Amino acid sequence: MFVSDGMAADRPRWSRYGWSAGVAAVLSAGLFWLVRGSLIDDSYITLSYARNLAFYGHWGLITAEVSNSATAPLNVLVLAAVTAVVRHPVLALGIVFVLANVALAVFLHATARASGLPGWIGPLGALLVAANPLLLSTVGLEMTLASALLGMLLFAAVRRRYVLFGVAAGLLALTRLDLGVFVLAVLIGRPGLWRGWWRWLLAAAVTALPWFVFSWFYFGSAVPDTLVIKQVQRSWGDWDFHNGLQLYHQVFPTAVVISLVPAVLGLVCLVGLCVLRLFRRAARVWPWALIGLGAVAHYYVYTLMGVPPYHWYYGPSLIGLTVLLVGGVGLLASRRLVVPAVLAGCAVFGAQGWFALQHGLPWREAAITTNWATSADYARIGAELGRVVGTGTVASPGEIGALAYFCDCAIVDTFSDRGYLAAQLEKRLADASPLTRALLELNYRHFQPTEPLRVDYVLRREPGPGPDPLWRIGTTWAEPAHLALLPGEPEPETSE
């Protein structure tokens, strides 16, 4: 039986959580069916890495070059492992998507019981995360995996499972280094974890260090090259991370509002729990509040960095505040306010479900996207591009993921060819503070610059519909345009 301070007289019996797993599995499978044809371009970067690793044992966006632009190594490794079994990357993605949501539901259910809250908030939390329009627009990236790992981190913090906490921290670092903000928030606000500091620290090191050491020597960089590539890009004119949601609201107003509802309610819960904390009340749900504080800190860190407002950058904050929201719902329910709590949770999920269904059956494009073409457009063009260029090398038009996946040819830019990295690294070092410069130089200590591949063709995006319908593209975000295949060897543009 669990007690309210997170310590227990016996171990949790995971068989108790079968119904939570079942609900999460069925509904998340339906959600994946809905979005499987609307994956964004960066999702196909991940799928290309996973396919190349599963089929050829090769780490790279294209088979012609080794690269290190996969932002989430753990996501690639997991997808590659499943792809090696099922032999289809998109099917593997669906399986991982479902399993990650099941894991989140079970961890939240177990954490709720350990916190003295009703278990049904577990599947509710998983569904609110999975059905969020912005997060559905990131399927294929690392956000679903990150949500499951944050659920593991919360469970370990509440139950004071030091080794499990360290494993969760290490896996979060392998997913995205910036997710360490959540780990720090929990460690600062949960002093009891420091009693077993050596156990979680050792577990985290054993989990994460082998990959980082391997990457440091083999790729010449312990962390992915996107750390440099994205920071060199900086803002989109007047738009960067701090005001990017305003930009998205102008183009996708309904999707943005529905995506932000759980986060706003989570912030309300955070304020309430902080006030209760001052009066030494609701201590049992304080770890849930720490996940919310981690979400706020993550948002603040990205604001300071001034990076471009890619919509998936907002994902960790949305996940953390949604987890906090369901903790607040559970607290209301435990205070005999079951009906208002259930109605609040169902209302949020109902709005998300309504949007998901009215957006299309299935979706043609993501609810929030900055791509120039739909995945169907790129699938059509990529297949033709592969037939035309054969073994030749083609410079990307600025978006590379889906084209590389469907073309299965040597298409290059800074994401696939590290020959262009040296110039970007030099630019980043020139603008860096002394501390940042020292860290970057240490990270790239073993990096050996190479020459870019010789480009035989150029794929260029041109405004307007173009003469051949086969090459025409356009989305809600981007004006109608077409891709033109030209000979030559220009400077490849940086992919979004």
Structural write-up:
This protein has two domains: 14-38 and 71-358, no CATH class; 375-487, no CATH class. Helices cover 60% and strands 4% of the residues. It has helices at residues 18-35, 41-56, 73-86, 89-114, 121-130, 133-136, 143-159, 162-175, 180-189, 197-218, 226-233, 244-251, 253-278, 286-305, 315-334, 338-358, 375-389, 401-407, 421-431, 434-443, and strands at 393-395, 410-412, 457-463, 472-473, 481-487. It starts with 17 loop residues before the first helix and ends in a 9-residue tail after the last strand.
SSE diagram, text form:
Layout: H1 18-35, H2 41-56, H3 73-86, H4 89-114, H5 121-130, H6 133-136, H7 143-159, H8 162-175, H9 180-189, H10 197-218, H11 226-233, H12 244-251, H13 253-278, H14 286-305, H15 315-334, H16 338-358, H17 375-389, E1 393-395, H18 401-407, E2 410-412, H19 421-431, H20 434-443, E3 457-463, E4 472-473, E5 481-487
Parallel strand pairs: 1-2, 1-3
Antiparallel strand pairs: 3-5, 4-5
